[in-house]
Design goal:
This is EVE domain-containing protein. Pfam families: EVE. There is one protein chain. The chain has helices spanning about 15-20, 30-40, 95-100, 110, 125-130; strands spanning about 5-10, 25, 45-50, 55-70, 80-95, 120. The chain is α+β, with helices and mostly antiparallel strands and about 140 residues long. The chain is globular. It binds a DNA duplex (12 and 12 nucleotides) through loops.
Length: about 140
DNA sequence: GCCAACGTTGGC
DNA sequence: GCCAACGTTGGC
């Protein structure tokens, strides 16, 4: 079972909107590395939901409900989406500054590859994030 | 709004 | 296939 992290700009698609919708397809990925991660997602896997630009923090947990398929917003075959549903909002959102301050998270893709919009999260990292979020 | 980091494009 | 130029992302 793998873990993931997706980024969204709250202006464009916030966690609150996501909760209202109950489900969304994750579109707009136009980067091969991110695309490959989308393709690697399996149904039932858990995904951290991160707000970039504003907030700059992990705000919630989502789950993959449908594995990748052709991005309906483009006819270019290279691009895919997955369906996600909200699982829960974190008690305490985890800001990037806290992630950077946590030695156990020093190697997170979020820190090292800050521009990648869909990235894998290790099980250890997942646990630490939830711990910082006050979930347990 | 600035700028660093990094991915992509295109000329050779 | 290399690499400079350019565009975009995202933290601050």
């Amino acid at each position: 079972m793998a873990y993931w992290l997706v980024k969204s700009e709250p202006f464009k698609y916030s966690w609150d909107q996501f909760e209202k919708d109950k489900k969304t397809f994750w579109d707009g990925v136009r980067n091969y590395a991110a695309r490959n991660n989308l393709k690697a997602m399996k149904k039932g896997e858990q995904v951290l939901y991160y707000h970039s630009n504003e907030g700059v923090e992990v705000v919630g947990i989502a789950e993959v409900v449908k594995e990748f398929y052709q991005d309906p917003t483009t006819t270019e075959e290279a691009w895919v989406v997955v369906d996600l549903k909200p699982v829960k909002k974190l008690k305490n959102p985890v800001p990037l500054s806290a992630i950077k301050a946590e030695p156990r998270l020093a190697n997170m893709a979020l820190v090292k590859l800050s521009r990648l919009s869909v990235q894998p999260v290790t099980e250890q990292e997942w646990k630490v994030i939830l711990e910082l979020a006050g979930e347990k």
